[in-house]
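hiii, so i know i said id send this last week but things got crazy w the move. better late than never?? heres the sequnce for the chain we talked about at the cafe, plus the structure i predicted for it. fair warning i was half asleep when i ran it
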Amino acid sequence: MVLLKVWENGRDWGFDNRLDSVWQYLLREQGLISLLLSDIDYFKQYNDTYGHATGDDCLRFIAQAFKQSVKRSRDLAARYGGEEFVVILPNTASDGAFHVAQEIHKALEQLNIPHAASAVKHHVTLSIGIATVIPTPNMVPLDLIEAADQALYQAKANRRNCSCIKNNIV
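okay and structure toks below
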């Protein structure tokens, strides 16, 4: 299931419902869940350089890159807000999640969307944080989101345009 709605302002609230549902299922089944949280590198500068209408087009192109990279029907890609996108990967270990992240990077690179104001490359890039866990009764889905967010900040601190994995979620 790929659910990508790109709104000018807002978030795809279907993500929250889907994450809760998958979380409860995998809590019972003791299965892995991976989450990718991504942020477009220097998107504010992109909007400042090209304008908000072009920024909205860029978001739509990136949504297509996610849609093409997330192939299994049980996976979900969604806009998380602003320039952030998220992917839920049920029954997926961190190496599988990293592979999906690399596919997203490749798809975006092939789009080659110009970004003259980027300090990373002259085309649009993403930073991606990855977290994987087997849900337990002591955890909530927000723990997974926060771990992916920490990995995302690590990717941004490293060099951007990369993926980082957060291990040891507690």
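btw Residues 1-11 have pLDDT under 50 and may be disordered. thought thatd interest u
miss u guys!!
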